[in-house]
Design brief:
disordered N terminus; about 260 residues; globular; two-stranded antiparallel ribbon; mainly alpha; disordered C terminus; 8 helices; single chain
Length: about 260
């Protein structure tokens, strides 16, 4: 009898709209035999649109003394150049700045969109809208692109000699290096997905339980950790590319 009131309260909470979050439920677009996650496409296009508009506004006027959005975008470009230079190396980094920069900016804006945009107010037939990076399909796709990038970088520089990395410093390292090629994209994708999804769920629960001021510090912390996650992903991607192109015979002399 003492449990009756708490159980009734929990039953009432279950029927509140904000408590109807169902992880794994998706809004699908059926195209032939393919099922596409519609909500991921919608939010991804929103993020891409924001980046295109920002790039257009920043580049339509090239002032010698930049200000406003031009100043911000030039700072972001310089930051990405320094990141790529530090991880890939002075001689090789330039061709990879667009790739590393695209990863960083897309993930950064995606993560922040989950915290700043009230996606849940937009009703769709199934599932609900959220940050693209809170969906495992997005983070796995980004991680696989990173894997293709560092394989391409290694083959482009070393040709078939790239496979020599798998038996260095001793041949019995071969199975461990192969396993490493599988664990790199797994760790990249699950780290990003887990952190962003957990942040959104924590904020949703706090808004439900204490809807006024308590969630605000958590949301501010979420913005900070979202930026850190974008930085970690881009840094690791650049580090993997640099590692694939590194000449181990010369690497120790440079360092």
């Amino acid at each position: 009898m003492y449990l009756a009131e708490p159980l009734n309260y929990l039953s009432h909470i279950h029927h509140l709209p904000i408590a109807e979050l169902e992880v794994g439920k998706h809004f699908y677009w059926q195209i032939g035999n393919l099922k596409l996650h519609g909500q991921v496409f919608l939010t991804s296009w929103f993020v891409i649109g924001v980046l295109i508009i920002a790039a257009f506004l920043a580049s339509r006027r090239s002032d010698r003394i930049p200000s406003g959005i031009q100043n911000f975008m030039e700072y972001a470009l310089e930051f990405i150049r320094d990141l790529a230079r530090g991880q890939i190396g002075e001689k090789e980094y330039r061709p990879w700045v667009p790739f590393v920069g695209t990863l960083f900016l897309f993930i950064f804006v995606s993560n922040w969109s989950g915290a700043l945009v009230p996606w849940k107010l937009v009703e769709i037939p199934g599932g609900e809208l959220a940050a693209p990076t809170s969906d495992i399909n997005t983070t796995v796709a980004l991680a696989l692109l990173t894997s293709l990038a560092y394989f391409y970088a290694g083959f482009r520089k070393k040709g078939l000699g790239y496979f020599g990395n798998y038996v260095q410093p001793v041949p019995f390292m071969l199975p461990f290096k192969i396993i490493e090629d599988f664990t790199k994209p797994l760790s990249l994708s699950f780290r990003l997905f887990g952190n962003i999804l957990a942040d959104e769920l924590v904020v949703a629960v706090l808004v439900l339980l204490v809807p006024l001021f308590v969630p605000l510090p958590v949301m501010a912390l979420g913005l900070f950790t979202s930026a850190i996650q974008a930085l970690i992903f881009a840094t690791l991607a650049a580090a993997y590319i640099g590692e694939a192109m590194e000449d181990h015979g010369e690497g120790h002399e440079e360092h």
